[in-house]
Amino acid sequence: MSTEPDLADLSAAVLARGGELRAGGTDTTARQRSGVSRGPFTDLDGAGHLRGCTPLPGGGLRIGALTTLAVLAVDPQVRAGWPALAVSAGTAATPQIRAAGTLGGNLLQRNRCCYYRNPHVGCLQKGGTGCPAREGDHHFGVVSGAGPCVAPHPSTLAMALLTYDAEAEIHGESPRGVADLYGDGDRLFRTDHLLPPESILTAVLLPPPLPGERAACHRAISRAHAEWPLVEATARVALDGSTITHAAVAAGGVARVPLRLTEVEAALVGREATPAVLAAAAATVLARCRPLPKTGYKATLFRDTVLEALEQAVGPAVAG
């Protein structure tokens, strides 16, 4: 009879051996093959209790960190109560990646900058002293809040979870907001999240959905499938007739961290869901844009992607 590994032992192994934890392996394997990461890797795969979705008292949901994106995309509880998360999981990457990639791995993955992924090029993320992308190829870089590193955060699920005010459950610690995994981005020039290597993300905790809420996701990509989005956005709204009573909006692909767009939300709540109101709310994101020389195109793409998500969320009967 097999026994599941003790999480404290796995954490201690990382402290003793160095290296990093490995979940589904879709990101770590790619980095290992390229020579960017050499391990050692401590596997979480045997921790079966970190899989699956469990209802919480009061109507919330606990999702184990090893739950795959493929499972998230079709889980009836997720689809009914937190549809933006299901859609985000179902549109990420490829079917093969979704079958192996996990919720926790998606939240804690490393960025996709071509300089970081090249073992022959030094950069801040690998302990170097500069960011070659800043003066080189940063066509896919940030458009908001550029710090020492200009690679956008790659997690689609983090963006969706921000709109649900989800919490991250860490082994041996109190839950914290998903946003707290990343901070404001100023400290993310040597890593892509703020957890120490030995910390184990065990689950994500979702609060109950709002009655009658609507949600939508929109991605701007350069081809239909298997492509990292240039910009993506998630919008949740609740309506009383045509009046917006609640809004939660987030974006990805534009900054070092997934962004909660409070300025968009403030421009929506209490107003009629008309095309003009939605357009004006989406346009507020332009004030936070500070493009790099090659990411100026992302400013208007950022605005338009947010607008598309808002229009899809409120629906044509209201926004039209």
Task: Describe this protein's structure.
With 320 residues, the protein is an alpha+beta fold. The strands form three sheets. The protein has a five-stranded antiparallel β-sheet, with no helix packed on it. Strands 8-9-10-11 form a four-stranded antiparallel β-sheet. A hairpin with a 5-residue loop joins β5 (167-170) and β6. α11 (275-283) runs antiparallel to α12 (297-314). The relative contact order is 0.13. It is 31% helix and 17% strand. The mean pLDDT is 93. The protein is built from 13 helices and eleven strands. It folds into two domains: 51-206, Uridine Diphospho-n-acetylenolpyruvylglucosamine Reductase, domain 3 (2-Layer Sandwich), CATH 3.30.465; 217-315, Enolase-like, domain 1. It has helices at residues 7-17, 26-34, 69-74, 76-81, 83-91, 95-100, 103-107, 132-135, 156-163, 262-266, 275-283, 297-314, 316-319; strands spanning 20-22, 41-43, 53-55, 61-64, 167-170, 176-177, 201-206, 214-220, 231-240, 243-252, 259-260.
A few lines on this structure:
Helices cover 31% and strands 17% of the residues. It is an alpha+beta fold and 320 residues long. The termini are far apart.
